[in-house]
Structure formats: C-alpha cells, structure tokens
Specification:
By secondary structure, the chain is an all-alpha fold. The protein has helices at about 1-5, 10-15, 20-25, 35-60, 65-75, 75-80, 90-110, 115-140, 155-160, 160-165, 185-195, 200-205, 210-240, 245-250, 255-275, 285-290. The chain has a domain at about 90-280. It has 16 helices and no strands. Helix 4 runs antiparallel to helix 7 and helix 11 (about 185-195) packs across helix 15 (about 255-275). It is globular and about 60 Å long.
C-alpha cells in the first residue's frame, strides 16, 4: 500500500515486501530466456519441504493418532506429498541444464574452455560453506540435540569419516539409519560427482563435433536408464523403496540420478540453437494455408 500511495519515495527495501512490485516482476517478459527455471526451482523446493514436514515431523509426532495417520496415508494428498521425492530430480536437471547452457554460450563467443577452472570453480563455490557446516556439526553438534533418542553415534561416525566430506564422496558412507544428522548433504556430493563427469561430453563436443557429442550423450542416457531400471527392479522387488539398502545403493548415488542430469544436458543442447535461430514458418506453407483459407 505504501508503494502504491507514495511511488516517488519507494526504496529497494520497500519493494521487497511490495505485492505490486513483486507481481510486476514475476509477470514481466523482459527477462532472461531461462528465468522460468526459477519457477521450477520454487515449486520443487515447496514439494520437498512439504514431503519432509509430512514424513519427519507429522508422521513421527507422538500426538498423532495412528489410525488417523493410516487413513491419511492412503489419501490423494499423501500420495502427492510422498512423490515430492521426485522433485529432487528437477534440481539435477536444472544444474546440468545451466552447466551445458553456460558452456555452449562461452563456446559460441569463442571463449576457451579450461578444465581446471571448471573444477576449481565448483569446489571453491560450494565446499568452503559445506565444510564450515560439517566442522560445526562434529564439534558442537552433540550440544544441539536432546531427548531419549539422542546420542552421539552420528557425530562419532562423521568424525571418523571426515575425509569423505572433504573429498566429496560422503553420499557413499551413509551406511546406517542412525547416521542421519548430515544425510541431507548427499545431494551436494552426488551433484558434484555428476558435475565432475560432465566435461567428458564437453571434450567430445570440442574435439570432434556437436553431433557426435549429441550421440555420445544419448548413448550414455540409454545405458543409464537400462542400469537404473535393472538394478532398481532387483532392489525394490526384494526390499522395497523404504529399505535401507535402497537408500544406500540407489537413492543417494550418482548412477541413479544420472538420467535427470543427462536430460538437462540434452535440453540445454537443443535450447541454445532454438534461442539463437528461432523456428520460422516456411513461406510456401504460409502461402498455401492462406490460399486454402
């Protein structure tokens, strides 16, 4: 209301809380061609937060009646919440899309691709913050919990395996259901591992041709789909998707998440040509359609 009544005194701080300014920004067409990714990221974040609130707070609440929980478990809303785990794949998709998008933009501008800069940029952008969180947890984490189920097994586990967080392979060391304090960091490591493998496609792109790199990415995608389908069918058929073995061998590892990552590469691969050379209606077809009309 203040922004509407006193437009000449608007500050950037007021605009942050202004519905009028924010809606104008949301529906503005004068944006980056990939600004729609922000909306996908927002929706995915909401679904993931709702899933964790439902599963780890509501279902585990001591005040929840078991019959009520069971009745809700089979409801359509519960089905929607449980499938919030699929929204995790959208983040892998977005990450790979942006990686390929930036790579192709730099290539079209004639900029040199440096493998070392590619890797170092990733490490120093994410891991210093991650290591600060990790060091806080293994030193002061034992003072941040309470209750009869609280113990220091999780802290001791990560103290012994601190090197896995530094190297970036901690998602392979969540070997116990009791090791859950830092289990959410699996995504950072899994995403980084896929990130480190992506330059293989870039090198094929640069050394050979764009079409050969496309064929290479498609072959890797088919192999990934086949391996995930075969292994996933064997694991879920014998143990179920809620088993610890499913989490260890599939959910948090890169070969399980490779499909969505590769799909992001493919979409960015085709997006750049469409942006630079948009599709146009053939003049002959346009003339024929007008004549028929």
């Amino acid at each position: 209301m203040y922004a509407h009544c006193v437009p000449h005194r608007n500050s950037e701080l007021c605009k942050v809380f202004s519905l009028q300014s924010n809606l104008a920004e949301v529906f503005s067409s004068q944006k980056s061609p990939i600004s729609c990714l922000d909306g996908i990221r927002t929706i995915s974040t909401i679904l993931i937060v709702m899933l964790h609130v439902w599963r780890f707070i509501i279902l585990r609440s001591s005040h929840l009646n078991e019959y009520t929980a069971l009745e809700f478990w089979y409801s359509p809303l519960s089905n929607l919440l449980e499938h919030g785990r699929n929204a995790v794949d959208t983040f892998f998709f977005l990450s790979s899309f942006l990686v390929m998008y930036n790579f192709q933009n730099k290539t079209l501008k004639g900029q040199h691709f440096s493998l070392w800069k590619f890797y170092l940029n990733r490490y120093f952008r994410l891991f210093p913050v991650l290591l600060i969180v990790f060091l806080f947890y293994i030193t002061l984490g034992k003072f941040c919990g309470k209750g009869p189920m609280h113990d220091n097994l999780d802290v001791e586990h990560w103290r012994k395996n601190a090197w896995t967080q530094i190297v970036g392979i901690a998602n392979f060391y969540c070997l116990s259901p009791r090791v859950s304090g830092l289990v959410h960091l699996w995504y950072v490591h899994c995403d980084t591992q896929l990130y480190l493998l992506t330059p293989i496609a870039f090198l094929v792109y640069l050394k050979f041709s764009k079409k050969i790199s496309l064929v290479f990415i498609c072959i890797v995608l088919l192999v990934s789909i086949a391996s995930v389908f075969t292994g996933g069918f064997m694991i879920t058929g014998n143990y179920g998707i809620y088993a610890v073995k499913y989490w260890i061998q599939f959910y948090s590892v890169p070969y399980f998440r490779g499909n969505s990552w590769i799909m992001g590469l493919l979409c960015a691969y085709f997006f750049i040509p469409m942006k630079t050379s948009p599709l146009k209606l053939n003049k002959n077809n346009e003339h024929n359609s007008d004549h028929k009309a």
